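Sample entry (209 residues):
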Amino acid sequence: MQFSSSLLENAVNEFAKLPGIGKKTALRLVLHLLKQDTKEVGHFSEVIARMRNEIKFCQRCFNVADGDICSICANSIRKQETICVVESIRDVIAIESTQQYNGIYHILGGIISPLDGIGPDQLNIESLISRVQKEKTEEIIFALNPNIQGDTTIYYIQKKLSAVTVNPIRITTIARGIAFGGELEYADEMTLARSLQNRLPVESYVSGR
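Predicted structure, serialized as tokens:
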């Protein structure tokens, strides 16, 4: 691509760094901004800058938040005794879009993957164990991607929980309406909702593998 302006070229290069955005799409976005009023573009830039500089992560579940605690954890109507364990913020958004879950979350920040150099110590696992010990948790739902790494993570956390919890906790995993090897965030809302409703005890799932 040849540009008559280095400013235009630099803007296109920055947009092209975003996931799923190629040079042609980046050029369309930049040209669109050039057509907009200067105040609108300034507002756009301000919103992005404020998001990056001021956004926080919930001290309880590690979801994105405007304050120390996210709106989901702070919602007294939600079932505080049920924790859905997910890999990323995108999975929270996917589950929330089903409108079928009324508990709270815990975001691990990844899954155990030795080949990628990701071990338990690099994830928010100890904070989950601590939550279960301190809070009146009745059920933990594992909503991790259905693959070997996700299953390894479930198995590891289940063993950690069984070693430290005194009161019995129901530990379940979403039903496999989602194909093994699939990505949770790309599942359609109906499939994901049914997987949550028809969740299975972890023991029966692990023994069936």
